[in-house]
Write a structure and sequence with these properties.
Blueprint: H1 7-18, E1 24-31, E2 34-40, E3 44-52, E4 58-67, E5 76-80, E6 86-90, E7 93-97, H2 104-118, H3 121-148, H4 151-178
Antiparallel strand pairs: 1-2, 2-3, 3-4, 5-6, 6-7
C-alpha cells in the first residue's frame, strides 16, 4: 500500500528548502504526521523525514543528502535492522526509515540508479568504452585459451609423447634383452 502524501505540499517544501521541485518523488511511508520520502533532483537525491504541520506545510525532521559530485557507485548503503526498519547511510550521514516489506537492497539500488542516471552522457560514453575494452580483452583471453586447448596441438603433443614412450619401451626392451 502506497502512503498518502500530498505531492504539491512536498513541491512547496522543496522549493523553500532547495529552490527547485523534485524530478521524482517516491513516498516510503506515512505514519501520523511524519512522511518519509525519497526525492530525486537534477543534481542530488534526498532521503527525508518530513513532519506535516497543522497548516499542511512540511518541515524537515531528518534527511540524508546525496549530491552527485560527492557520490561514487556503491557508496549508498541500506541495511535492515533487527526491528525491521531500514538504515540508510551515505558517508557520515544516516537515517532510519520505517519498516517496510521492501528489501534494503531495492532501496539502495533505486537511489544508485537515480544517481547513475544523473551522471550524464560523457560518463555513460566512458562506461561504454570501458565495457567495450573489457569485452575485447575477454575475447582475446578466450581466443588464447582456445589456441592452447586446440585439438590439433593436443594431437601433435600426443603423437610426440607416444613416440617418446615407444622409444623408451624399445630401449628398455633392448637393455633387458642384453642382460
Amino acid at each position: 500500500m502506497e502512503p498518502d502524501i500530498d505531492e504539491d505540499a512536498i513541491d512547496d517544501w522543496s522549493m523553500r528548502a532547495w529552490g527547485e521541485a523534485p524530478v521524482e518523488i517516491f513516498p516510503w511511508s506515512s505514519i501520523d504526521q511524519r512522511h518519509e520520502v525519497l526525492l530525486k533532483y537534477s543534481n542530488m537525491v534526498v532521503v527525508a523525514r518530513l513532519v506535516e504541520k497543522d497548516t499542511g506545510d512540511f518541515s524537515t525532521e531528518l534527511q540524508v543528502i546525496i549530491r552527485i559530485n560527492e557520490w561514487s557507485p556503491g557508496s549508498v548503503q541500506a541495511n535492515r535492522l533487527t526491528d525491521g526498519s531500514i538504515k540508510v547511510r551515505f558517508r557520515r550521514q544516516s537515517m532510519t526509515l520505517s519498516a517496510m516489506l521492501k528489501a534494503p537492497d531495492a532501496l539502495s539500488s533505486m537511489l544508485e540508479e537515480w544517481l547513475m542516471g544523473m551522471r550524464g552522457e560523457p560518463d555513460r560514453e566512458r562506461d561504454r568504452f570501458k565495457r567495450l575494452k573489457a569485452m575485447k580483452r575477454q575475447r582475446d583471453a578466450v581466443s588464447r585459451m582456445l589456441d592452447q586447448a586446440s585439438v590439433e596441438k593436443l594431437a601433435e603433443t600426443y603423437e610426440q609423447i607416444e613416440s617418446k614412450l615407444s622409444d623408451s619401451e624399445n630401449s628398455l626392451a633392448g637393455s633387458i634383452a642384453d642382460e
